[in-house]
Amino acid sequence: MSAEQHVWACAPLPDDVQRALELIRNTEGVCHVAVMPDVHRAEDVCVGTVVGTADVVIPAAVGADIGCGMAAIRFDVDAGCIRDERTAARVLALLNARVPGLHHASRSRPVLPPEVLAAELSHASLRKQAQRDGVLEFGTLGRGNHFLELQADDDGLLWLMVHSGSRAMGPEILRHHLAASRMTTTGLRVINAGAAEPYLQDVRWALAYAHHSRAYMLQVVTDILGSLVGAAADPATLITCEHNHVRQEEHRGRLLWVHRKGAMFAGAGVAGVIPGSMGSSSFHVQGRGCEDALCSSSHGAGRAMSRSQARRAVTLRALEDQLRGVHFDHRLALRLRDEAPAAYKDISAVMRAQRELVRVVRRLRPLLSYKAA
User: Fold this and answer.
1) Would the N or C end of the chain have less CB density within 10 A of its end CB?
2) CA distances to 27, 94, 217 from 220, in Å
3) For residues 321-340, average pLDDT
């Protein structure tokens, strides 16, 4: 018997997405699937899918970038302070030097915080990986859709938004536990809930690692803006959220293992961040606690084109046109075509499709976008 499914779509679902959703609905132990408006095809389980299970945990329904999420904070200055080309170029240069994409130089890398160092991973191979790649990559942005963005709200105040995850550790945790999982009739691998604690332990570690890594990058940008334009961050405005995790939650009187892959927890009144693309608006929201959605929402706009499709379809001139008015590193333009606004769904349509899931608190428009392509 297929699991219960609820869909919030901003356009008809492609055939490959429908096939992937049918597969997860028919996987052993799955009892509830919620499909977010940013849903798009990914390996095994679509990004933008929320899966509730009764007695199994499904690592693929969390994905590889465990703990990937957002952080946003407001500064006490007018957003106009970074509009001129010279200031924006200095900000981009300092970001490039101090928030690398892959790993820090050995002489300048940050130290893992005590909260991460004190936590224990489940296996010696993962602990070894954490001491190598985990240390080197802490406080780095990553590539793909990860970014740092300076934005203006409707009152003209300056905001920072950071999107990053657990870097090499997330994929390593996924690989390790897939090897110890069992195959179901649909081809997805699961772990019996009673035996899932080692995986859940490592998920908690990755969540903490990613959270503290984003906090480190927030502080780096705060220092940069303080030195360049005298800006100070307001800690009371900080918003943080995650969109690749699994945890046990109660919904309609039933305990479920809720997996979110490219989806954000949107419990009633819970603050969240939903980014658009490099050239479109982003939103701060509050959750409405929709039980049909397992109290979830989209995690962003969602891809409209695969990366390979975007590289074929988006020209350099088109990218420049789509990013007019947004400062970015033009030297990376060729490599940023797969992150062009045209490669993503219309964020306005996505937000309209999930009015039942979240309430918009604030709209932000991009001023400067930093990606480590």
Assistant:
1) N
2) 44, 10, 5
3) 94
The CATH number covering residue 361 comes to: 3.90.1860.10
Active site residues: 299
Domain residues for the domain of 16 are 4-370
The percent of residues above 70 in pLDDT, for the chain, comes to 99
Contacts 24+ apart (CB under 8 A), 91-97: 91/150, 91/224, 91/225, 91/228, 91/327, 91/368, 91/370, 92/327, 92/328, 92/329, 92/368, 92/370, 94/224, 94/228, 95/148, 95/221, 95/224, 95/370, 96/329, 96/370, 96/372
Name the one residue in this structure whose structure tokens are 């990218």: 319
- Here the tokens at position 162 are 């950071």
Q: Is the pLDDT of residue 156 over 70?
A: yes
Cα 55 to Cα 167: distance, rounded to the nearest angstrom:
29
pLDDT at 230: 96
Q: Is 216:209 a contact under the CB 8 Å cutoff?
A: no
Query: For position 106, what pLDDT does the model report?
Result: 66
Q: CA–CA separation, 219 vs 298, rounded Å?
A: 27
Number of domains in the chain: 1
Residue-averaged pLDDT of the chain:
95
